[in-house]
């Protein structure tokens, strides 16, 4: 989940040829979960239409102090209070100068002057304008007043000259906003300073060099747990089998890829210190006793009998080593949910909480974007039964139980 999720963003668009990049920028901000209100200068309308940006943002674009059709007032004060972030992209030299010295002759600058949230300015102009002392002075003054200037990129400009002045790509602007919000998101994060070990995905047990025993786990639930834990401030060691779905890279995420149950066990044993272990992986219960070294040819062996032996129980073995100050959470996916069996599993594996679900529920289990689970405490009581929810939401509910388990 993005750090921009739920944020109110006022996007100021000014009269630069780069105004066309406002369209994909809005889409990325909306995709990240933000609400976007576009404010345009009169010159910006010459480069991209308000209709385009209104369609993408889902809100009427504001260009003037009042609506010329009915006279209704566009309150810059209300917009300033609503905005968590005020982003001007692209920002012309003229708009930067007006913002720097409070020349409030358009709605965009008055909104800026009323804004209490963070301010970001992404300049876009020709290289000589960008390097002119007056533009540098405006940028310096804006920084001194608390604004963040997103440096322009180098490249070919609208004048066909090559130099510094290009608006950063929308993806880079969004990435920068998310990085800047990282400390704010984690300042009071409930898992800040905690180290989580999370196992995820299936394991593959080789039959021969090209075939294996596996299961349908996609790794989506493990990914959701890892990303939500990061969002709540934790550091995560993520041990994953060959899953289709993996968490996004993060500086607080250590990813260890494995194939078999044996490899997953060794990876877990190698994590010498952690606060919480979440055993979400769908580990194969059996492996082939003697995998073939060469591909088995069907024409040579029309029938194939496999001698299977039990795999190590990773959660149980880790449970035996669990320290008194560590918390372990396990998962129980059954074809039919029997709470007595789930409670027995909790005792055998030394879990503090178990997440139980059944394939009988439509929309739950492997390969789905949703899940329906029951959380059981160590004493066997039902902590809560969640309705069908997105796995990201399920992960958040699981992690919210941790503070009282420590």
Topology readout:
Blueprint: E1 8-13, H1 22-31, E2 35-40, H2 50-57, H3 76-82, E3 85-91, H4 93-101, H5 107-114, E4 118-123, H6 127-130, H7 133-144, E5 148-149, E6 153-156, E7 162-166, H8 170-186, E8 195-200, E9 205-208, E10 211-213, H9 220-231, E11 235-240, E12 253-257, H10 261-269, E13 276-279, E14 286-288, E15 308-310, H11 314-320, E16 327-334, H12 339-348, E17 353-358, E18 370-371, E19 374-377, E20 382-385, E21 389-390, H13 391-400, H14 402-405
Parallel strand pairs: 1-2, 1-3, 3-4, 4-5, 8-11, 8-13, 11-12, 13-16, 16-17
Antiparallel strand pairs: 6-7, 9-10, 14-15, 17-19, 18-21, 19-20
Helix pairs in contact: 1-2, 1-8, 3-5, 4-7, 9-13
What do you see in this structure?
The protein has 406 residues and is α/β, with parallel strands linked by helices. The protein has helices spanning 22-31, 50-57, 76-82, 93-101, 107-114, 127-130, 133-144, 170-186, 220-231, 261-269, 314-320, 339-348, 391-400, 402-405; strands spanning 8-13, 35-40, 85-91, 118-123, 148-149, 153-156, 162-166, 195-200, 205-208, 211-213, 235-240, 253-257, 276-279, 286-288, 308-310, 327-334, 353-358, 370-371, 374-377, 382-385, 389-390. An 8-stranded mixed sheet has the order 12-11-8-13-16-17-19-20, with helices on both faces. It has a 5-stranded parallel sheet with strand order 2-1-3-4-5, with helices on both faces. A two-stranded antiparallel ribbon has the order 6-7. The two termini are 25 Å apart.
């Amino acid at each position: 989940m993005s750090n921009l999720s739920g944020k109110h963003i006022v996007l100021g668009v000014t009269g630069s040829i780069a105004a066309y990049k406002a369209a994909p920028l809005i889409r990325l901000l909306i995709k990240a979960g933000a609400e976007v209100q576009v404010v345009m200068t009169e010159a910006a309308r010459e480069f991209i239409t308000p209709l385009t940006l209104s369609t993408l943002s889902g809100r009427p674009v504001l260009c003037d102090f009042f609506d010329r059709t009915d006279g209704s007032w566009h309150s810059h004060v209300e917009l300033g209070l609503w905005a968590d972030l005020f982003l001007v992209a692209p920002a012309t030299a003229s708009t930067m100068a007006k913002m720097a010295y409070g020349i409030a002759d358009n709605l965009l600058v008055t909104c800026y002057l009323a804004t209490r949230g963070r301010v970001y300015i992404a300049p876009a102009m020709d290289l000589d304008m960008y390097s002119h002392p007056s533009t540098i002075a405006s940028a310096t003054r804006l920084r001194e007043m608390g604004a963040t200037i997103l440096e322009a990129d180098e490249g070919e400009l609208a004048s066909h000259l090559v130099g510094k002045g290009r608006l950063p790509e929308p993806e880079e602007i969004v990435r920068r906003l998310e990085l800047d919000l990282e400390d704010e998101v984690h300042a009071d994060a409930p898992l800040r300073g905690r180290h989580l070990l999370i196992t995820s995905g299936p394991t593959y047990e080789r039959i021969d060099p090209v075939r294996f025993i596996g299961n349908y786990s996609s790794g989506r639930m493990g990914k959701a747990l890892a990303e939500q834990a990061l969002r709540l401030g934790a550091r995560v060691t993520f041990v994953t089998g060959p899953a289709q779905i993996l968490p996004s890279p993060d500086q607080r995420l250590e990813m260890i890829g494995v194939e078999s149950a044996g490899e997953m066990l060794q990876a877990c044993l190698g994590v010498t210190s952690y606060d919480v272990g979440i055993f979400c992986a769908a580990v194969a219960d059996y492996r082939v006793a003697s995998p073939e070294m060469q591909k088995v040819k069907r024409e040579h062996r029309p029938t194939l009998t496999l001698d299977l032996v039990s795999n190590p129980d990773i959660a149980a073995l880790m449970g035996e080593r669990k320290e008194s100050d560590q918390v372990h959470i396990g998962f129980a996916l059954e074809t039919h949910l029997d709470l007595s069996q789930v409670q027995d599993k909790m005792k055998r594996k030394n879990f503090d909480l178990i997440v139980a679900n059944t394939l009988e529920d439509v929309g739950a289990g492997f390969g789905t974007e949703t899940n329906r689970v029951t959380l059981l405490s160590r004493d066997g009581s039902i902590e809560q039964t969640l309705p069908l929810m997105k796995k990201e939401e399920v992960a958040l509910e699981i992690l919210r139980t941790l503070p009282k388990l420590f």
